[in-house]
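Section 5: illustrative case.
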């Protein structure tokens, strides 16, 4: 059975900074004139890059797609911590940044490789007694969060431009890259926050094959519909 719009599948979208994942869903609904649209793996407003948009019957495999590993490239800034652990938050501490060696950076990143537990940030959509944590954070409240078991499959320091470090990380579902940046800063003793982030891959899907927000808004409907990956195509790409 086909969906109401006749469009079923997954659209790869390159999210722009400053918009939420829900904004992308709304733009897709208008572009394809269909209501049944979802997304896989929220990207914070600061972040750009690959967002998997599910359409029609594609929404039924949303959980399956969300469970896959992700790849990100990002930039952390040493010497400043923020309440959200990224550049969108309020600065909570400023510390001097020592002259680190490359070996010290390598050692700090290596501490967060493989299996470990990560405590989600207060500014997150995780719910406590039905209330999203970010709403409690806005009220100045902090509650205990359950640590999550996560995995980093690969990491790489791409460039060092003090006080900034560019990096790449391949990680499991539920991984917070801003918490990763924050904890690396803690490990180095000078604090850090996530300054920029781009999701480059989700499972077998790559941002290189995605539709831009500009293309999505410009249409026309037929041109966007032609970019939607059918469910059989998604299955083949996933190696299922």
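Designed sequence:
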């Amino acid at each position: 059975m086909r969906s109401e719009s006749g469009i079923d599948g997954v659209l790869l979208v390159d999210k722009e900074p400053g918009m939420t994942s829900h904004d992308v869903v709304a733009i897709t609904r208008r572009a394809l004139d269909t209501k049944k649209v979802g997304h896989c793996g929220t990207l914070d407003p600061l972040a750009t890059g690959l967002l998997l948009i599910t359409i029609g019957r594609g929404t039924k495999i949303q959980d399956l797609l969300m469970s896959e590993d992700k790849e990100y490239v990002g930039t952390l800034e040493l010497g400043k911590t923020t309440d959200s652990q990224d550049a969108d938050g309020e600065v909570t501490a400023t510390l001097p940044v020592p002259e680190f060696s490359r070996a010290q950076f390598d050692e700090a990143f290596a501490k967060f490789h493989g299996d470990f537990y990560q405590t989600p940030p207060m500014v997150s959509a995780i719910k406590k007694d039905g209330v999203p944590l970010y709403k409690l954070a806005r009220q100045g409240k902090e509650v205990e969060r359950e640590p999550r078991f996560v995995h980093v499959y690969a990491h790489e320091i791409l460039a060092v431009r003090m006080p900034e470090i560019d990096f790449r990380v391949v990680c499991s579902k539920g991984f917070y890259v801003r918490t990763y940046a924050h904890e690396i800063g803690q490990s180095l003793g000078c604090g850090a926050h996530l300054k920029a982030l781009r999701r480059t891959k989700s499972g077998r899907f790559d941002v290189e094959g995605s539709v831009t927000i500009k293309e999505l808004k410009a249409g026309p409907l037929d041109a966007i519909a032609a970019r939607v990956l059918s469910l059989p195509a998604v299955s083949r790409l996933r190696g299922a």
